[in-house]
From TrEMBL:
Transmembrane regions: 6-26
Protein keywords: Cell membrane, Lipopolysaccharide biosynthesis, Membrane, Transferase, Transmembrane, Transmembrane helix
Pathway: Bacterial outer membrane biogenesis; LPS core biosynthesis
Family of this protein: Belongs to the glycosyltransferase group 1 family.
Protein's UniProt name: 3-deoxy-D-manno-octulosonic acid transferase
Keyword check for Cell membrane: yes
Record localization: Cell membrane
Source species of the chain: Candidatus Nitrohelix vancouverensis
Catalytic activity: lipid IVA (E. coli) + CMP-3-deoxy-beta-D-manno-octulosonate = alpha-Kdo-(2->6)-lipid IVA (E. coli) + CMP + H(+)
Matches recorded under InterPro entries: Glycos_transf_N, Glycos_transf_N_sf, Kdotransferase
Pfam family, one: Glycos_transf_N
Length: 428
């Protein structure tokens, strides 16, 4: 099967190369580093120090990798770390967060035999680690053929993905068994891999790295943020983060209804994709809600708005610190799947989410058991629950700090496992 996969990729090269080049032309970073996608990644000089190649698909995966790579750098100073990404946002985040840890940062080559073979020859890693998800069968097979350990870190497997993999069980199991070890976030992910026929001895529970990436914002920083937003002391703040199409209209309608009962209520909304900002702004204006973009603040007067749309990159996590209640999107409209609930919980906020949260169901259950998260089933449920929470917003926040401390530590665990892998004698 893998031979057919490689042959198809090679046969389609005359279409893939110009097609991808055209796509990259309109990208912020991909065009500048186009050759990397075709295998011409930075060539590393070879010495006695081990090399770890870590692949992080996008910004979220890079963010999750930061505490892990920091621990690795501290525990094994001679380790050479190189980081590849797939998206522009991932590249930007890696350049910002990992410039002092990674020897080089580049775009992962397309999973076509000539490109991946060239990249492996130029880097010659002692181990290859993949963050979260987004693996390619071609490079995994090459790693196994070269006896280079491949590790899945912070792995997760939703029920939807499990059903898709089960429909191609033979192929999926063959690819996943190319990993030397798979470190999963939770028990449901581990159980899913067992159902697919993955070797049980390869599967391990390591926790969720996301818990190690978030810290409570200090009172001083929170006050500075409130001053930036020009909030009055009595203002109530609802933060709706990582919203998707269909959810913003529900949120706008609920906000208008709540505003009648809570005149000081302000909404901060962060669409998951910044390219949708204009669309969301037009929706709010059509609803006659006084709305500003976060980037417009320098020319606005105090409280000249009722809602703010975050159109700046990387601010949402800290912004939760000035809220009283949060809603996390991609959960209220099917098919959904959810986004991480940890960031608002880390700031002590009660967190609302819809019923379509399967990608983060274990986290949602943990937060719910500790009275930090509430599931709502529909728009009316969202409005009714918000009314209760805005009247008693402090009641659910008291357990946030202790809960997060219980779940921290995945970065230490994974750092030790990676070092053990690197120090294990080769079986060549």
């Amino acid at each position: 099967m893998i031979v057919i996969y490689h042959l198809i990729g090679i046969a389609l090269l005359p279409l893939i190369v110009p097609g991808f080049a055209l796509y990259a032309f309109f990208s912020r970073y991909k065009w500048k580093h186009l050759a990397q996608h075709f295998g011409r990644v930075p060539a590393l000089s070879q010495d006695d120090r081990p090399i770890l190649w870590l692949q992080a698909l996008s910004a979220g995966e890079v963010q999750n990798a930061v505490p892990l790579l920091a621990k690795l750098s501290d525990k094994k100073p001679d380790l050479r770390i190189v980081v590849s990404v797939t998206t522009d946002s991932g590249y930007e985040m890696a350049k910002r967060k990992l410039k002092d840890i990674a020897e080089c940062i580049f775009f992962h080559p397309l999973d076509i035999l000539p490109f991946t073979a060239m990249a492996l020859k130029r880097i010659r890693p002692n181990a290859y680690a993949l963050m979260d998800t987004g693996f390619w069968p071609g490079i995994l097979r090459q790693l196994r053929a070269r006896n280079i350990p491949a590790l899945l870190l912070n792995g997760r497997l939703s029920q939807r993905s499990l059903k898709r993999y089960q429909s191609l069980r033979g192929l999926s199991a063959g690819v996943l068994n190319c990993f030397s070890a798979l470190y999963m976030q939770n028990q449901s992910g581990k159980d899913g891999l067992l159902q697919l026929g993955i070797d049980a001895e390869k599967i391990h529970l390591a926790g969720d790295l996301k818990f190690d990436t978030v810290e409570a914002v200090s009172a001083t920083e929170a006050q500075r943020l409130r001053e930036t937003y020009k909030f009055k002391d009595e203002a109530l703040v609802w933060i709706a983060g990582s919203t998707h199409a269909g959810e913003e209209e529900i949120i706008a309608n609920v906000f208008k209804n709540l505003k009648e009962s809570f005149p000081t209520l302000t909404l901060i909304l962060a669409p998951r994709r910044l390219e949708r900002v204009d669309e969301v702004m037009a929706l709010f204006k059509a609803k006659q809600i006084r709305t500003l973009l976060r980037s417009e603040f320098q020319r606005t007067g105090p409280m000249s708005y009722d809602a703010v749309i975050l159109d700046t990159y990387g601010e949402l996590a800290k912004t939760y610190a000035i809220g009283h209640v949060a809603f996390v999107g991609n959960s209220l409209v099917p098919p959904g799947g959810g986004h991480s609930l940890i960031e608002p919980a880390a700031q002590g906020l009660p967190v609302l989410h819809g019923p379509y949260i399967e990608n983060f169901s274990d986290t949602a259950d943990s937060l719910s058991r500790n009275q930090l998260a509430v599931a709502v089933q529909d728009p009316q449920g969202l409005e009714d629950t918000l009314r209760v929470l805005l009247q008693n917003f402090g009641q659910l926040a008291k357990n946030a700090s202790s809960l997060l401390q219980q779940y921290k530590g995945a970065s230490d665990t994974l750092a030790l496992r990676i070092i053990e892998t690197l120090e294990r004698p080769s079986t060549d």
